[in-house]
User: What shape does this take?
Amino acid sequence: MATERTLCIIKPDAVEKNTAGAVLALLESAGFSILALKRTHLPQAVAEGFYAVHKARPFFGELVTFMTRSPVVIAVLERDDAVAQYRKVMGATDPAKADAGTIRKLYGANVGENAVHGSDSLDNAKNEIAYFFASSEVAPSA
Ligand code: CMP
Assistant: This one.
């Protein structure tokens, strides 16, 4: 399997509950290296730009309000097959449908407040990483 990078956002609900450290520990236990990490309070325009693909969805306004209500923690993750492996560890979008032991089952509340975001393809991972991090901010793997 090829080594890949993907983007993880620990969302406001999980940061508010002080579970960001637990999420990062779970990811490290699952074999991911954290190449970059920051805590930031997303401005509205940044959240709207990040989720622009969902602009026409009925939940877009709710999603942006949620993502901007308090700080998030954003990480660049690396391991073999990172995009698919992170989606597995993250669990289904709706925490009620997520498998036991996944991040969303453990820390998510509902489909809106679901603890974490993850890139859904390698192309999107590259774009999402570049949206939040300059290449100089992403440490080399080892
Ligand atoms: P995320 O992986 O961050 O990508 C888009 C987000 O939209 C998704 O996680 C959910 O949190 C959110 N979302 C999807 N469906 C709904 C919905 N029906 N109501 C509110 N938010 C939703």
Observations:
- Helices lie at 12-16, 20-29, 44-50, 60-67, 82-90, 103-107, 122-132.
- The chain is about 40% helix and 20% strand.
